[in-house]
Amino acid sequence: MHPIDWTKEFKRKAPIHLEIGFGNGEFLIRQSKENPRHNFIGIEIENLLIKKASKRITRANAKNVRLLKLDVNIALERLFAQRCLDSVYTLFPFPWPKKRHYHHRLFNKTFLKLVNSRLKTKGAVRIVTDFKPYYEWVLLRTPNTGFKTKKKTIDPHFNTQFERKWAEEGQKSFYQIDLKKINHISTKVLKEENVTATFIKDFNPKLYAPKNKTGTTSIIFKKFFFNSKENCGTQNMLVAEKNLTQKFRVLICPQGKKWCVSLDHDQDIIKTKGVKESLLQIKKACPKI
Ligand SMILES: C[S@@+](CC[C@H](N)C(=O)[O-])C[C@H]1O[C@@H](n2cnc3c(N)ncnc32)[C@H](O)[C@@H]1O
User: Fold this and answer.
1) What is the pLDDT of residues 87-141, one digit of tens each?
2) Using one digit for the tens of pLDDT, what is the confidence trace for 78-89?
C-alpha cells in the first residue's frame, strides 16, 4: 500500500534521511554506520547500482538502510507521505549542462516544492555539485519553495566515486546548497489505482490479437505464452508513463464459466492508470467468440 509506512518498514520510529542518486552506495552506507539510530533510504534508477549497493549493505550488515529502484519524482509523489522525512540530500547529481537537456535537471521549482512537502518542519536539503552553472540554476529556483537558502563553496570531503573522479581531474572546489524548511507547501500523495480483475466470456489464444498503443502512456504487448496443460495464458507487458516504465505479467485464466484477466501475484509494481488501462486493452484484444 502507498504511501509506505516507513516506521513499519524499518520496525522502529527514528529520523529518516533520503539520498537521491546514491551511485555505488558507499556514502549512504557510511552514513548509516555513523548514525545507527537513524534510518536511511537510497533511491537510484540504475539496476546495476542497486545490485552493487545491496551487496555492500549485506556485507556491512546495515539494518537501517532501504533501497528503492525508481525515479525520485515517482518515489516522492507516491511512496512518501507529507512531512515524513528529516532530510534529503544528493551528491553530484547529473548537471545536464546542455540547454536542450535542462528539462532533465532534478531541482526545478516543482521538484523543490515536492521535496518540501515530504519533509518535516525544519527538515533539511543538501545539494552538492561540481558544476557551478547548475548550482546557480538551482539557486534561482529556490525562492517561494518554502525554504531558507544557504550556499557555499567547499573542499572535497564526501569521498564519493564522483567526488574522487572530479578531484583526480584537478577540481579543488565544489558547490553546496543547504535548504531549511520554513513553510510547508502541500503536494498531495498520488494514490495507487484500484486495479481489479476484469472478465471475458470466452478466450481463444489463436484469436487473441493485442495491439500496442503509443503516446503519453504507451502500452506495449511483449511475449504471450499459453500453457495448454494448465489452460492459462500469460501476457508480458511494458507500460511507459511519465518518468516510469514498468514490466509486469497479466494472467488470462478460466474462472467459473468466464475467463479472468488479472495481474499476476507477487509483482513489485506501482498500480498506475497505465497498468489499469493495460488490462482493459487485453480485454479488447480478445474477440467475442
Ligand atoms: C553523477 S552520479 C553521482 C553518484 C554518487 N552520488 C556519487 O557522488 O558518486 C548521479 C546518480 O544519480 C542517479 N540518478 C539520476 N537521476 C535520477 C533520478 N531521477 N532518480 C534517482 N536517481 C537518479 C544516477 O543513476 C547516478 O547514479
Assistant:
1) 999 999 999 999 999 999 999 999 999 999 999 999 999 999 999 999 999 999 9
2) 999 999 999 999
Task: Report DSSP state, residue 213.
Answer: B
Does 42 contact ligand 1 (Cβ within 6 A)?
A: no
CA 168 to CA 8: how far, in whole Å? 42
Q: Which of 17, 22, 76 to mutate to test the pocket of ligand 1 (most atoms within 8 A of CB)?
A: 22
Q: Whose CA is nearest to atom 13 of ligand 1?
A: 21
Q: Which grid cell is 191?
A: 494514490
Decide: 72 in ligand 1 pocket, CB within 6 A: yes
The topology under which CATH files domain 6-181 is Rossmann fold (3.40.50)
CB of 43 shorter than 6 A to ligand 1: yes
Distance CA 164, CA 159 (A): 6
Instruction: Output the CA 57–ligand 1 centroid distance in Å.
Output: 18
CA 284 distance to own-chain centroid: 31
The half-sphere exposure of 229 on its side-chain side, counting CA atoms within 13 A, is: 0
Distance CA 278, CA 236 (A): 11
pTM of full prediction above 0.85: yes
- Helix then strand count (H, E) for the chain reads 8, 12
Residues 167, 154: Cα–Cα separation, whole Å: 12
Ramachandran region, residue 159 (left: φ > 0; alpha: ψ -120 to 50; beta: rest): left
Distance CA 36, CA 260 (A): 48
Specify the domain boundaries for CATH 3.40.50.150 within the chain. 6-181
167 touches ligand 1 (CB under 6 Å): no
Q: Which residue has the cell 524499518?
A: 10
Report, in this order, helix, strand and coil percent for the chain, each rounded to 5.
30, 30, 40
